[in-house]
Write a structure and sequence with these properties.
This protein is α/β, with parallel strands linked by helices and about 500 residues long. It has helices at about 5-10, 15, 20-25, 50-60, 75-80, 85-90, 110-115, 195-205, 230-235, 255-265, 265-275, 280-305, 340, 370-375, 390-395, 450-460, and strands spanning about 25-30, 60, 65, 120-125, 140, 185, 215-220, 225-230, 315-320, 325, 330, 340-345, 345-350, 365, 405, 410-415, 420-425, 430-435, 475-480, 485. The protein has one domain: Alkaline Phosphatase, subunit A (3-Layer(aba) Sandwich), CATH 3.40.720. The chain binds calcium ion.
């Protein structure tokens, strides 16, 4: 097996004469949460301002047809970080701990740690509730700092000091509303926001001298709800210019029962926004939160470039899932449509060819684990579900198979370069021509001429789905010792 890294291969024999350790690239792994394709370089919303992400896309490779393994935080992040799809692990929702359910699974940070890397992180990398981010994953880690400590349940965020809500709740003025579906400009400086503290950590880490190669993960919360951002990001989007997403009143009529059920999840929030005249305000807040995230991504990228590690660092930028803003009468994610599964994904690696040229082949966040292993020249774990993106980084025309997103057991969406085929657990189907019908208004699954196409796409769906693993209430979890004891069956 070759021990040369992707960088080593690209640079040729002179570089390969150096000892392995000095050639292994560092990784800076930057994530955002619930950022859909409303990013300049993905053209999801004309007028969105994401100059830093767009610049990274020009410097690196934008995967313009990238999808999450699952359209929800915990299953998406667990799949990405373990390299295994939900139908393999049985981790399908936000109420499952991966650790006690997947003994022996080696995650990306663990794998790099085992292979001579310093692994460090800050913010939301694994899912953010207690029990999802075991400290043994990291050499050092700075926990998530919330902008809304007044909402956070103590048992889920024991490191977080709850304070009385100083602003009134909800801050956005929705009537009689409780929960995290909130937005606005907090009375504090940009530097005081929680995500900025994660970026600060990353910048301090990059200013230090590191003897070993490193894997640094900085996980931003924005644009996830509550969408709180500094005033200057709201000022980018005057409310009179904010456009609502394109919708059709009859859009749900041709969707089968399970799809309608997914769309109906937290429907009351959509209804309330519409009824109280807050739709534009909420869309504007999402745009502001995207631009705030973009500024923080830019600050971190510039620090990498100006650091001692700039020429030997792989930069990866990703979002865990997309986000609806009223399309199909839905807010949030947790659906198998383009709004929920399509995510920004950019890789900038030293020595790669074809930088600045977007790839339109279907790819998945699951593909990151084998990609990073290959780019760093590490011996690859053999039992990962994803496929390395390194061939696509080398060759913009490389062929790719269709890719799959899964939500809860036995519900899958397959994407190729043109089509999305969804099949739900009860056999209900949807088929969209994503080129002619990017909003996925017209379900073509019932048309006889598409039977062969559906058969071809269906073959990429997992043949079996693992049963859903026990949820958090099946364990006594102790945060101090980070141990999980299965509760006895009653
Ligand atoms: Ca998310």
């Amino acid at each position: 097996m070759t021990r040369r890294t992707f960088l080593g291969s690209a640079m040729g024999a002179a570089a390969s004469a150096q000892p392995d350790r000095t050639r292994r690239p560092n990784i800076v792994f930057v994530s955002v949460d619930d950022m859909n394709d409303w990013v300049g370089c993905l053209r999801g919303y004309p007028g969105v301002q994401t100059p830093n992400i767009d610049r990274l896309a020009r410097r690196g490779v934008l995967f313009a047809n990238a999808h999450c393994a699952s359209p929800l935080c915990n299953p998406s992040r667990t799949a990405l970080l373990t390299g295994r799809r939900p139908s393999t692990t049985g981790i399908y929702n936000n109420d499952q701990f991966w650790r006690p359910n997947l003994p022996g699974v080696v995650t990306i940070p663990q794998y790099f740690k085992q292979n001579g890397y310093t692994v460090a992180g800050a913010g939301k990398v694994f899912h953010h509730t207690a029990g999802c981010n075991p400290p043994d994953q990291w050499d050092e880690f700075q926990l998530q700092v919330f902008d809304d400590p007044w909402y956070r349940r103590d048992e889920w965020y024991p490191w977080n000091k709850r304070i009385p809500n100083p602003l009134g709740h909800p801050y956005n003025g929705l009537k009689n509303f409780q929960g995290e579906f909130d937005w606005g400009v907090l009375p504090k400086e940009a530097s005081e926001y929680g995500d900025q503290k994660a970026v600060d950590y990353g910048q301090r880490f990059l200013a230090r001298k590191h003897e070993k190669p490193f894997f640094l993960a900085v996980g931003l919360w924005h644009p996830h709800i509550p969408m709180f951002s500094p005033r200057q990001y709201y000022d980018l989007y005057p409310e009179s210019k904010v456009k609502l997403p394109e919708i059709r009143a009859d859009d749900l009529n041709d969707i089968p029962a399970v799809g309608r059920e997914f769309a109906a999840f937290r429907r009351s929030e959509h209804e309330r926004i519409v009824k109280e005249g807050k739709w534009k305000d909420a869309v504007r807040s999402y745009l502001a939160a995207i631009s705030f995230a973009d500024a923080m991504v830019g600050a971190l990228v510039r620090t990498v470039e100006q650091s001692a590690y700039g020429s030997n660092t792989v930069l990866v930028f990703w979002s865990d899932n997309g986000w609806h803003l009223g399309e199909k009468q839905h807010w949030h994610k947790s659906t198998l449509w383009q709004r929920s599964t399509h995510v920004p994904l950019i890789i900038s690696a030293p020595g790669m060819r074809g930088a600045g040229k977007a790839r339109n082949q279907p790819v998945n966040l699951l593909d990151l684990y084998p990609t990073l292993v290959e780019l760093c020249g590490l011996p690859g774990p053999k039992d990962l579900d994803g496929e390395s993106l390194a061939p696509l980084l080398r060759d913009p025309a490389a062929r790719r198979n269709p890719t799959v997103s899964t939500y809860l057991p036995n519900n899958h969406a397959v994407r190729n370069e043109r089509w999305r085929y969804i099949r739900y657990s009860d056999g209900g189907e949807e088929l969209y021509d994503c080129v002619k019908d990017p909003n996925e208004f017209t379900n073509l699954a019932g048309m006889p001429e598409h039977a062969g196409l559906k058969r071809d796409l269906a073959q990429w769906m997992p043949k079996a789905s693992a049963a859903s693993k026990p949820e958090r209430d099946a364990f006594d979890f102790d945060f101090a010792t980070y141990t999980f004891k299965p509760k006895r069956a009653q």
